[in-house]
Amino acid sequence: MAFGSPGPLPLRLCVCVGVVLGIFNDRLEHDHFRGIPPGRPHPPSDRKPVDDFFEELGLARPNCESSCDCSLRAGCTCKIVFWRDQRFIDSIHLKRCNLTGRRIHSNSTVLQLKFLQSLSIRGSGLEGSVPTGFSTVAELDLFGNELTGDISVLKDLPRGLKRIVLSSNRLVGTIPEHLPFNHLKELRLANNALTGGIPAKLFAAARLEILSLANNKLSGAIPDISSPVGPLGELYLEGNQLLGEIPSSIAKLNELRVLRLEHNALEGKIPEELSSLLSLKQLRLNGNKLRGPIPEGLGKLRNLTVLQLNDLALDCPIPESLGSLTELIVLDLSNSNLKGAIPAQFAQLTKMESLSLMNNDLWGRLPPLNMPELRVALLGRNHFSGPLPTAFCEMQQLLSLSLHWNNLNGALPHCLGHVTNLTDLFLAHNEFDGEVPTSFSNLDQLEVITLHSNHFGGTIPELTQSSLTIATFHDNDFAGNIPAFNLSASCSNSPWYRLHGMDCLMLEAAMEREDVRDCGELQSIFKIEISGLLQQCPKTCNTCNVNGLQAKATLHGNRLAGSIPRSINSSRIQTTALMGNLLGDGEPLDANWLPPEDPRLCWDGVDVFCCCFV
Does the global pTM surpass 0.85? Predict the structure, then answer.
């Protein structure tokens, strides 16, 4: 068939024509949406209004020939997106630009940008009221500024807005019952000073996916949710003054992925209906007046990664069904008056990174937890008994292990010293015995170790980590020398005490014999307690520097032999000496004694110095 003859066009030509027509129609529709009549000349470039707008804000002109990431000043990030041959602005994004004292006025040149789709000025201290007068803006993000005024300004914003972010400003007032937006997908008003109740119609908004009203002063009850409901996926109501019960109708929000109601005054039981929200990934109800039991059905929420039911009045056991939540990363059930044992099913929670069961009434042996990704394990202040499971040695990501105030017993596993990421180890107030593993010297990141109030014997291991700030050993059965705490390399002539950066060292009632030698360089020392020891006081103390900390050194209640430093040289000493129940042959220091000008002997920054004799 000849090209010019009648009949159907060749298939390939039809496709080409269709594509061209489709592009042409899209361009016409785009122009029409932006207010450009088809076939008319395009309006002037946006470059001058943009330059003028930046000048209004006290910023340098962006100097962009096309879409760019512009650098305006140190710490300030800027992104400008153009469209249509680089003539018109599609979006302006500014972040951390220090706009204190600047505001967007009602006649601002930014309002002349008739094709602007997105304006974002975040964390910049922008002042004044929320700007209105935009014609085509679909996204308005003014997070983290100093905007003031009444939230009723929402009614004056463009109806076509899809995303509104006004969080972390200083807005007041009540949220309007009726909002004019037909396409709104995201509304974030958190961290302001909004009052009043939550409009029920927000839950029925046809396209709203994210609603954040957290950390305001909202009061009243969570409104009952009636059908139809919108596609709400994230609901943030935490940190308000909400009262009453969690409505069972909340289960109608069946697309919820995040439900945060923590830190309100909600009461009643945790609704069983929450178990039907199968898309939930985060459920946070902590810090309310809710009571138990924990619904067994929560075990059906197999997508949960975060479950926080801490600081409640649950007064119930932990349901075994929670062991089915195999996607859990964070589980916090602390301070909720839980009873019974940890379910054996918790061994299935292999993705757990943070587990907190602190301050409950839990008992029994600690189960062998299979949690190789665990970073934080807070199990203190319960009634757990038996030995410390070696399963903790397999948790090589573990940073903090808290088991204090339990009834755990036996010797500490040597392998615990190979969990080399540990920074905090709280084992005080248990029934542990035996020697402290020498492998603890391998814990290079250790900052805090509390071993007091146990039955440890033998000698205290050398802990030479430069990161160590708190170490407690009192109320044990230790004997022998106080070991080196090599926390400062600047005191090479003092092999016994090198406490650079140490905040607190407690050795009271822990040792039986031997000497306390030279104290070395006590930089940043905050508190030393060596009470209850049969020791020699150090004869000399080298130059110290507490860097402004209110330090305290106590040596009271000892049976010390030998002498203490005969001079204390410090310009910051608040209390020179406190004497009482002194033993030995020496005479107590005069309470009015003033330190001499001897720079060789000092306790710099010590505000209380308690010794037994000189």
Answer: no
